[in-house]
Design brief:
Elements: E1 2-4, E2 8-11, H1 15-20, E3 29-30, E4 35-38, H2 45-59
Antiparallel strand pairs: 1-2, 2-4, 3-4
Length: 61
Amino acid sequence: MIAGYKNHLGLYPHPTTIEKFNKKLKEYRKGKGSVQFPINKPLPEELIIKMIEYRLNLLTK
């Protein structure tokens, strides 16, 4: 799930996805199953795509 807020875009993949990509997400605010991308910086599109692909792979096994 993705949601837009005043100062950030929230991505809510799943806690296991956040764990898997924790090192690559170090510059962003994270919660247990969420990550916040500030609206004043470009979105890390490749990283977001990899996170989505990872989660889809887990769901379709």
